[in-house]
């Protein structure tokens, strides 16, 4: 059994958890909820839910095109969300923040607009540890344009294999699209170093930061990325809103993605001209209340302090890795030390399929994810079809990790794998 | 959520020693089905003699429920007319979608009644149906091919 003395967090977990009413829920059988699926979707604090409620109940109207008082309030609230997100990730300008419906749409936006200038002979580089959202849009872009998709492999210990970086990054390489933190392995990749090499050959660097922005302080002004995507619902914000940050001069050079209202300058039947970023990429009524909620979410995280949240994640990952290593027959997928390890740990348990692991844990109130976590290629890399994943956030306690470790012992005895 | 109602001994037996596992020759049609959301995969071969199912073999990666359901499904359809197998599927589907309110017919479903508890775990219903969907697809293709051969 793990020892609580080895755990130390800068967060007051009791007061953090009080902000998340769902965490005190009881599930079937009287078990308290042990929510270890935050890499899938995080829970929401009262402050976020109340901001959305307040918006809908007092300020609701469409943005920009509504010329009345409520329209002005809704516009201010929506654009206020943009200001908060820009500040949260260190964007030099609010106009570099494009709201999408999720990270997948943000990455598709990147692949479509960058893809418009790809041609046969060009190369797009991704990695074997990407989420499907950062593989498939590039496969589609390559199919449309005749460009070639190449990828970084993954080492035996779950790190990005950079041994052939000079073969992958050449004059032909136009785009390098990489995840910052692997959603399956938890690996944190050295984005700044890779971005410098990609820029040296003239490639544009796209970063999937879906698992990074929730977990540690992000400063896009020094990262080295040209475009960066993340989603609202993983940063204690609502579903239905994602973010694409881009260097303004790059965004300004890109063609539109979706056509519709608000993304235009002048529409004539013979052709149209387009608005400047970010409006160029926000066709139609945007996720207004969601932007308000996302603004409240990043305010909430900033109030607690992203440096403290990162330190807590590190401590809980270290504690969880120690605990999981005590379970017989358990193999951790990816890095087994907490260094450069994000807040998700995937594992296999000898003799029990991940779906069965998750169902048995679920009957004890423990919510984990089982499957390929939308990262099938990296599972194939390790000869696995699927895995069980436990993922953590600012509200995760060492007691919940203990419950997981105990639960896995019960899974083993239930399936008689001893 | 009663764990033992999901993991009946019969299910665990079929999981540990699945019937008709391992792809065999000869066969008419081979299909490969996946549950994209979870990654379970089954490769399944069907051989028909006229309208009768003479052989079903399979190879799969997946959880206890999907593997055991494929094993039980094979037992239920082999040696039977295709129409009877399809009718059994309808009964099994009704049980799976019944949220625990459907009384299973042991005459028809045999070991399949052990899956009654799965209906109370909505996330696992698709596991129990994967092998069935592969068999229905392969059988429909085999029937169509036989029909085509007759008319050629």
UniProtKB/TrEMBL annotation, chain A:
<feature type="domain" description="Aminotransferase class V">
    <location>
        <begin position="34"/>
        <end position="404"/>
    </location>
</feature>
<dbReference type="InterPro" id="IPR015421">
    <property type="entry name" value="PyrdxlP-dep_Trfase_major"/>
</dbReference>
<dbReference type="GO" id="GO:0016829">
    <property type="term" value="F:lyase activity"/>
</dbReference>
<dbReference type="GO" id="GO:0006534">
    <property type="term" value="P:cysteine metabolic process"/>
</dbReference>
<dbReference type="GO" id="GO:0030170">
    <property type="term" value="F:pyridoxal phosphate binding"/>
</dbReference>
<dbReference type="InterPro" id="IPR016454">
    <property type="entry name" value="Cysteine_dSase"/>
</dbReference>
<keyword id="KW-0456">Lyase</keyword>
<comment type="similarity">
    <text>Belongs to the class-V pyridoxal-phosphate-dependent aminotransferase family. Csd subfamily.</text>
</comment>
<dbReference type="InterPro" id="IPR010970">
    <property type="entry name" value="Cys_dSase_SufS"/>
</dbReference>
<dbReference type="InterPro" id="IPR015424">
    <property type="entry name" value="PyrdxlP-dep_Trfase"/>
</dbReference>
<dbReference type="InterPro" id="IPR000192">
    <property type="entry name" value="Aminotrans_V_dom"/>
</dbReference>
<dbReference type="GO" id="GO:0031071">
    <property type="term" value="F:cysteine desulfurase activity"/>
</dbReference>
<protein>
    <recommendedName>
        <fullName>cysteine desulfurase</fullName>
        <ecNumber>2.8.1.7</ecNumber>
    </recommendedName>
</protein>
<keyword id="KW-0663">Pyridoxal phosphate</keyword>
<dbReference type="Pfam" id="PF00266">
    <property type="entry name" value="Aminotran_5"/>
</dbReference>
<dbReference type="InterPro" id="IPR015422">
    <property type="entry name" value="PyrdxlP-dep_Trfase_small"/>
</dbReference>
<keyword id="KW-0808">Transferase</keyword>
UniProtKB/TrEMBL annotation, chain B:
<protein>
    <submittedName>
        <fullName>Nitrogen fixation NifU-like protein</fullName>
    </submittedName>
</protein>
<dbReference type="Pfam" id="PF01592">
    <property type="entry name" value="NifU_N"/>
</dbReference>
<feature type="domain" description="NIF system FeS cluster assembly NifU N-terminal">
    <location>
        <begin position="7"/>
        <end position="127"/>
    </location>
</feature>
<dbReference type="GO" id="GO:0016226">
    <property type="term" value="P:iron-sulfur cluster assembly"/>
</dbReference>
<dbReference type="InterPro" id="IPR002871">
    <property type="entry name" value="NIF_FeS_clus_asmbl_NifU_N"/>
</dbReference>
<dbReference type="GO" id="GO:0051536">
    <property type="term" value="F:iron-sulfur cluster binding"/>
</dbReference>
<dbReference type="GO" id="GO:0005506">
    <property type="term" value="F:iron ion binding"/>
</dbReference>
């Amino acid at each position: 059994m793990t020892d609580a003395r080895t755990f130390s967090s800068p967060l007051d977990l009791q007061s953090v958890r009080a902000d998340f009413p769902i965490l005190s829920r009881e599930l079937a059988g009287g078990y308290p909820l042990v929510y270890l699926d935050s890499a899938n979707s995080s829970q929401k604090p009262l402050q976020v839910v109340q901001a959305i409620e307040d918006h809908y109940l007092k300020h609701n109207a469409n943005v920009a095109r509504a010329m009345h008082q409520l329209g002005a309030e809704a516009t201010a609230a929506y654009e206020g969300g943009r200001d908060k997100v820009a500040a949260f990730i260190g964007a030099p300008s609010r106009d570099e923040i494009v709201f999408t419906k999720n990270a997948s749409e943000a990455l598709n936006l990147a692949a479509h607009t960058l893809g418009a200038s790809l041609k046969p002979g060009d190369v797009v580089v991704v990695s074997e540890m990407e989420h499907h959202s950062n593989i498939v849009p590039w496969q589609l872009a390559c199919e449309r344009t005749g460009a070639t998709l190449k990828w970084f492999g993954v080492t035996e210990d779950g790190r990005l294999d950079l041994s052939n970086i000079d073969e992958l990054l050449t004059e032909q390489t136009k785009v390098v699209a990489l995840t910052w933190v692997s959603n399956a392995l938890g690996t944190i990749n050295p984005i700044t170093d890779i971005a410098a090499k990609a820029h040296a050959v003239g490639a544009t660097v796209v970063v999937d930061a879906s698992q990074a922005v929730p977990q540690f302080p992000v400063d896009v002004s020094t990262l080295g990325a040209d475009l960066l995507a993340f989603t609202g619902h993983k940063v204690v914000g609502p579903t239905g809103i994602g973010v694409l940050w881009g260097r303004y001069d790059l965004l300004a050079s890109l063609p539109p993605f979706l056509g519709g209202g608000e993304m235009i300058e002048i529409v004539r039947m013979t052709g149209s001209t387009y608005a400047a970023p970010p409006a160029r990429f926000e066709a139609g009524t945007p996720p207004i209340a969601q932007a308000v909620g996302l603004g409240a979410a990043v305010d909430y995280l900033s109030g607690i302090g992203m440096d403290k949240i990162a330190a807590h994640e590190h401590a809980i990952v270290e504690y969880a890795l120690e605990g999981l290593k005590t379970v017989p027959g358990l193999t951790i997928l990816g890095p087994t030390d907490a260094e450069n390890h994000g807040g998700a740990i995937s594992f296999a348990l000898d003799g029990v399929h991940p779906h069965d692991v998750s169902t048995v844990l679920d009957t004890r109130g423990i919510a984990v994810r089982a499957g390929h976590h939308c990262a099938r290629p990296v599972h194939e890399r390790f000869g696995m079809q699927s895995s069980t994943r436990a993922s953590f956030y600012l509200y995760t306690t060492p007691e919940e990790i203990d419950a997981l470790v105990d639960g896995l012992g019960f899974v083993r005895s239930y399936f008689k794998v001893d | 959520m009663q764990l033992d109602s999901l993991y009946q001994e019969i299910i665990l037996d079929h999981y540990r020693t699945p019937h008709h596992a391992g792809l065999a020759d000869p066969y008419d049609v081979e299909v490969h089905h996946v549950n994209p959301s979870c990654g379970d995969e089954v490769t399944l071969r069907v051989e028909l003699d006229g309208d009768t199912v003479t052989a079903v073999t399979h190879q799969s990666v997946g959880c206890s429920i999907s593997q055991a359901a494929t094993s039980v499904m094979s037992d239920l359809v082999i040696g039977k007319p295709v129409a009877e197998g399809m009718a059994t599927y309808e009964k099994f589907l009704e049980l799976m979608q019944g949220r625990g309110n459907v009384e299973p017919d042991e005459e028809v479903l045999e070991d399949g009644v052990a899956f009654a508890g799965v209906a109370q775990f909505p996330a696992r219903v698709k596991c129990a149906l994967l092998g069935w969907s592969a068999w229905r697809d392969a059988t429909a293709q085999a029937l169509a091919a036989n029909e085509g051969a007759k008319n050629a």
